Amino acid sequence: MKKKNNVPSHIAIVMDGNGRWxxxxxxxxxxxxxxxxxxxxxxxxxxxxxKIDYLSLFAFSTENWSRPKLEVKALMNLLHVVIKEELNNLxxxxxxxxxxxxxxxxPKKTEESLKVAISxxxxxxxxxxxxxxxxxxxxxxxxxxxxxxxxxTKVDFANFNEKYFENHLATSNIPEPELMIRTSGEQRISxxxxxxxxxxxxxxxxxxxxxFSKKExxxxxxxxxxxxxxxxxx
Length: 234
Prior knowledge:
alpha/beta
């Protein structure tokens, strides 16, 4: 549900373009990922400053495992380091960290650092920061279906509705994103929030993720405010 001032309560971002940013500058792909830390920090700060309730960041998809092994290893180590570095900031800013995806598929130290951060911020009541790691929309839908079939001795099909199914998704108890942003000029959602984005407003920008700033996020919200969200009605 939108806030009274027409600002979205939940923003989701497909962070894309780190590799291209690095290639343009003759740098390694991992240097693009390192540079992107600034964009993540600015996006979080903007949401805190503007009292956005939820921010979802698509950090690592199930398909990203197909990237070069050296890059994947560097990404997992970077994630581990950043979470440890930023934990105190999350606590001080009253940010609750949630992670969706298959954590068991991550390297042990990365998994543990995420679990520690989740535990230490679980009582925070400000912005909820959702990191999608080893996640995909298809995985989420399949995983929800498996949980229903495995845990329900007898499925009540008479009451098998959207709400029932949503309660088994990784985003259970999290409102659907009203605004989804994709950087780098690509105009697709790339297997992110397939169920949840059914009525999300989509905003595409040519800006590569390492260059994304508070200004660009504000531009996306300005565009969102002009949209007429009818949800299938006239």
